[in-house]
Specification:
mainly alpha
Length: 203
């Protein structure tokens, strides 16, 4: 009986240490919505490209700028949704949304992401289009894994999934669009659903 209580105490101490050093208010619902936004954005991009007279993207084309605007709006909607829903969850938990743990989370997420974004722009400027989708998935996956040390849940596995899809995409760039849809759309919905039922609903 005493050994059971001892183990429970150890578990509680471990949970307290995790809660004090990690940002725990990431909303699962924001992951689901980010995936839905990505699917909508991918559908719009697909229609823009398939209905253009070339049928493919070039860097200085009008369609390319529209697709970039489409991607930017998807990213903006996902970020705003994540901030609003995570803020609401933090308030519900009686926690601060912007403290040392959330700062570490954001900084460690942005370092690989911004590095990848700059690298992708460089190779696009060299008219090397073929690996764009693969690089987006790989650098995004690295950003998630790098940030996972400062939060809880399945975000590390989401990052691993994105990297695996990115490597597959590098081998078969002709399926880049569909692997992008799978990585940024479907995987986010699965991740958000698991997070929602494991961490949000039981609060």
């Amino acid at each position: 009986m005493e050994s059971k209580k001892y183990l429970e105490d150890i578990t509680e101490i471990k949970n307290m240490m995790n809660r004090s050093s990690r940002f725990i208010s990431l909303s699962g619902l924001s992951g689901i919505l980010a995936g839905i936004y990505a699917l909508i954005g991918a559908f719009i991009a697909y229609k823009l490209v398939s209905n253009s007279h070339r049928g493919y993207l070039i860097l200085d084309g009008h369609i390319f700028r529209l697709v970039m605007l489409d991607l930017a709006l998807v990213a903006l909607a996902s970020i705003v949704t994540a901030i609003l829903l995570s803020t609401a969850k933090a308030k519900k938990n009686g926690e601060k949304i912007w403290d040392s743990s959330s700062k570490r989370l954001v900084i460690n997420f942005l370092i690989p992401l911004i590095t990848g974004g700059i690298y992708i722009l460089i190779i696009l400027n060299q008219q090397k289009y073929g690996q764009t989708a693969a690089l987006m998935l790989i650098f995004y996956g690295l950003a998630l894994i790098n940030a996972s040390k400062y939060t809880l849940g399945y975000i590390r596995y989401l990052g691993i999934g994105e990297i695996v899809l990115g490597l597959i995409c590098a081998f078969i760039p002709g399926f880049g669009f569909w692997l992008w849809v799978l990585g940024f759309g479907i995987l986010h919905i699965i991740y958000g659903t698991l997070m929602h039922f494991k961490y949000d609903r039981k609060k």
